[in-house]
Amino acid sequence: MTFQLLLACHVLAGITATLAGAAAMLVRKRRGRHTWPGTVYLAALLVIVVTASGMGALHWPRVNHLLILAGIALAGATLGYAARRVAWRGWLPYHITGMGISYIAMLTAFYVDSGPNLPLWRLLPPIAFWFLPAAVGLPILVHALIRHRPGRRTPAPPRS
Ligand code: HEM
Fold it and tell me: How many domains are contained in the chain?
């Protein structure tokens, strides 16, 4: 019963974070347009991590690898958020890298756990679920870093 309740909140937060993260990446990087889905992503990721920890405790130690990915996703998002809020000198690469790593780690956890149950995806070898999100996400991350590299005009951090 407790597990089912945690799982329901977890799946809802997972769908929300996936959509909000994609929206934050795709929209023009303006205050509101970008910061609103970005904040929703952070809130949903927190719910994912809390519910995953609860489910992890109930199924200890079977899903410890997912909790490590939860830690990476949370650490990346915290770095990305702090870089933008504190407005470090040259904050943008830290923001892009932190948020990108966070999103990749979150999707990796999802595919590692649920990939073997998804139609078509289940035909892939289990090891593929560990690498596919990074194989797609890392080139996009590198492209974003090159596009916004120091020396090109770096936007001031948007005020909230
Ligand atoms: C940091 C990211 C994530 C972590 C650490 C995580 C962790 C977990 C954990 C610990 C479980 C319970 C597994 C078990 O005890 O058997 C679980 C189940 C599940 N998660 Fe996630 N998850 C993450 C992201 C997501 C996302 C983005 C979704 C998208 C909707 C999602 C959907 C699900 C589903 C459907 C299940 C049930 C799978 C099953 O019963 O086989 N998760 N997750």
Answer: 1
